[in-house]
Amino acid sequence: MNRKHIFFAVACTFLLASCDYQANNQIKQKDLAEGDEYVYGVHPDSSARQLKNKYTAKPENEIRAGKIREKLFGPAGAIATGN
Questions:
Q1: How many domains does one find in the chain?
Q2: Looking at the domain assignment, is residue 32 inside a domain?
Q3: Cα–Cα–Cα angle for 27, 48, 43, nearest 5°?
Q4: Residue 61 has what pLDDT?
């Protein structure tokens, strides 16, 4: 009985190892933004130009995000108190 279990485990290992999981899980398609400095930057090691945009913080957006978060996940202390 023990040999059957070992054979089964080895067979499963070989079957799982033979699957090239991520090789077939991709779509080959043309990159429409290839070479665009705004998206990828000047060269691969540089940051994209769009990352240089800075926006002023708006406190009303933080309040709105908090209300949405509370609506989705409930009050902030509900998980800790068990309510």
A1: 1
A2: no
A3: 80
A4: 93
